[in-house]
Amino acid sequence: MSELLITGSTGFIGKQVLKQLAQGEERLLLLVRSPEKAAAALSKQGFGGGDAAKRIQFLKGDLSEPNLGLNPADYNRALQADVIIHAGGPMSITLDNAKAQRTFLEGSRHLAELAERIHKARGLRHFIHVVGYMSPIHDGNVDPEADVFRMDDFMKGEGPYERMKFLADLLIRQQALRHGYPLSVVNPSTVVGASPTGATEQTGGLGILVHAVRKGLMPVVPGGASHWVPLVANDALAGVIVHLAREAKPEGGTYNMLGRKEAGPNMKELLDLIARELAVPAPRGALPVSLLRGVMKTGLGRLTGIPAESLAFITERSFDTKTTEKLIGRMGAKPLAVTELLPMVVADLDYRLTHPGASEPAHWSRERKGDLAALVREGLGEPWVIVHGLLSGADDFVPLAEHLHASTGNPVWLLDLPGFGRSPLLREGRHSLESYAKAVSEAIADSPVPVRLVGHSFGARIALETANGPAGGKLSTLALLQPVLHRPDVGALRRALSGTRRTASAALRLMSVRAMRNTMLREGVFAAEEEIPDGYVETIVRSLTSPRIAAANADMLHSLYRKLPAKPAMPVLPTSLHTTVIWGTKDRTYALPEAYRNQAGTRLVSYGHQFPVSHPAVTAKILAEQV
């Protein structure tokens, strides 16, 4: 059984590598600073218990310390590895010189010393080093005698992060040549989230561009259409690393992990895509990258949050990908293309930048359903699929979903509608009632069994449209919570919100927490202030600082005002489907037609419009009873 020593196992790349190793048989030795924190972080990666967890041993240490900071027993344990995967080091392009040298150069020297001892004692099968696509070091220019600790002119003028990382590349290559063990250098381009969700927790890469575009800090295209930022999906990168680690007789080599320049978006196309997904104006014109880097070095980089070092990832070069393409062909994997994934990536990064530090609720996973992001809780039987309404998102319905799951045991899917939460805006056309229903229909098509569709507020109107369309046969039950069946009375604020996307979006983004809270209480969104969950209004207002989410809400308001009648109307309910209507009688803005009130499946509750959020347990109980 193979033994793998892995550095960086809790990082963005390392976690995906472990996820792909979860179903294997290798014993995994993980060099970590804190075994307790590492165990907690990896519990969601398939190593929470059972046989997978038994294959892991945490070695408490530090790359920058002699003998990797390991105690003698753990160092002897590390000497039993026959494959080393070195993916350690922070993604922090603004590291100072001293820290960058300790982290990358000293760390690689200590790891190379371990590799030498393993190879002399029993033979090291493979050393895999994860570096970066801008490294100037390659198989043909390694000087075995160069002293990497005295190469002061190496990449002079570049940032310490790049310099030390690439000097570490040279050092590892030197040691492999001197001692004769196989070495594979994997050079990833800028790494984005794994397909199909595109979840990109590392916001220091492409996230810097997303931040700049959404804040209007990049009015021009760096380098113009002749330049590009090569990108690679995390799962594709990890797949190559895992494949190399499992090779019985590795040949070694350099693998540049990026697609061909002509196959991906150029810099202008990439920024246009980001701007389109964020609903902001795209940069116009172009300036040389060197000029922009000089401007950022004056201190503007610190003020704008765009480090001058980040522009080093924008290049005009093409890269040799022949070796990589041959390897991917042998693996039977797909070519390294990320264009189709980018809308999900941008939406996810935008959400993370809007809500820094937001974490997944326990027992839930982020998935993709159709073109929508979803929070999923596993269970048995028909899934509950919950569709939110205006000023909401999937995360707001976790308490309701938890109660539903506890009482029924069924799976629960919480969908983010287009442009909300972590879902991208619609790829074609403006949002409409029909387009929302189509997106939900494509999401539930992923279910192998019928689903229990639940919609709240305008989401209930979308659920009803879905049920009356071609996807209706996919439903087992339909529940409409406070369905919005008419547009509200028009006041000054509502007139602003019902205008163009730009005016409505601007009005939403300018709302304060106090104004939002007062509006909710005045309109019966909540019946009393004590019903508003802690932090709920603050989270909504923070969400609206995202131009994408503000535009999505503006689009929904546009649909509400332009598509719904002025007075309560009774849409046709699907006759072949059991339908439940739950109505909060303290709503001061919307009304329920009498025809609905008299139906057997209607339940009246003495709450405000947002009762699924304020009273999740009661709502879940009623839903479970109606099935």
UniProtKB/TrEMBL annotation:
GO terms for molecular function: aldehyde dehydrogenase (NAD+) activity. InterPro entries: AB_hydrolase_1, AB_hydrolase_fold, FAR_NAD-bd, NAD(P)-bd_dom_sf, NAD(P)-dependent_oxidoreduct. Residues 385-621 form the AB hydrolase-1 domain. PANTHER family: NAD(P)-BINDING DOMAIN-CONTAINING PROTEIN-RELATED (PTHR48079:SF6), PROTEIN YEEZ (PTHR48079). One of its GO terms (cellular component) is cytoplasm. It comes from the Bacteria. It comes from Paenibacillus elgii. Residues 6-239 form the Thioester reductase (TE) domain. This is Nonribosomal peptide synthetase MxaA. SUPFAM superfamilies: alpha/beta-Hydrolases, NAD(P)-binding Rossmann-fold domains.
